[in-house]
Design a protein that fits this description.
Order of helices and strands: HEEEHEHEHEEH
Shape: elongated
Number of strands: 7
Length: 184
């Protein structure tokens, strides 16, 4: 009887191991498929890569007035904060942006870029008490596509010549600007 029970447990164990192996192979295959899908959706040349020019389109201020980028003519680097008024993560990152502004506001130009309708961006700016200007691209989707913006919040450092010097997605820390600006 014990040999029969041993054979039953052994068969059950082998079945479980075969099932586990099949599940792991399936998950591995799915993971490879997702990596391929994500690579196609977000190719490396579409992210805001350092050295690439920043593409500015028609923009308006939060009170619907036409505005000029002026990034290429700026006398100092520009820190761009890209956000959505509907982004909970963006709301939690405002304090970090304000800290950067307080610490480096004299050395860098700061500009918020809202990717929502103007009224929503204006509400976000008012709620957040941003001390620097915020603008809205007239065509946010085209702006995102041309600059490789797939998620917010993002912070970009753009040189006075208009090329991306640094890029960071997610929460920003003061060391983003603590070291000297790279050439670009």
């Amino acid at each position: 009887m014990s040999q029969r029970r041993f054979l039953t447990y052994s068969a059950l164990l082998h079945s479980l191991l075969a099932l586990l192996t099949a599940a792991l192979l399936f998950v591995g295959h799915q993971n490879r498929q997702w990596k391929e899908i994500l690579a196609d959706a977000f190719p490396n040349d579409k992210i805001p890569a350092v050295g690439n020019p920043f593409v500015g389109l028609d923009i308006t201020t939060t009170d619907n007035q036409p505005a000029a980028w002026g990034i290429k003519t700026a006398d100092r680097p520009t820190v761009l904060f890209l956000f959505s008024a509907n982004c909970a993560s963006c709301e939690t990152h405002v304090d970090a942006w304000l800290d950067l502004y307080d610490q480096f506001g004299d050395e860098y130009r700061f500009l918020g870029i809202g990717l929502d309708p103007t009224a929503q961006v204006a509400d976000f700016v008012e709620r957040s008490k941003l001390p620097f200007p915020a603008v809205v691209p007239k065509d946010p989707r085209l702006f995102q596509q041309l600059n490789g913006i797939h998620a917010v919040p993002q912070t970009l450092l753009v040189s006075p010549r208009g090329s991306v010097s640094r890029h960071h997605a997610g929460r920003i820390y003061s060391d983003f600007l603590a070291s000297p600006e790279p050439a670009g």
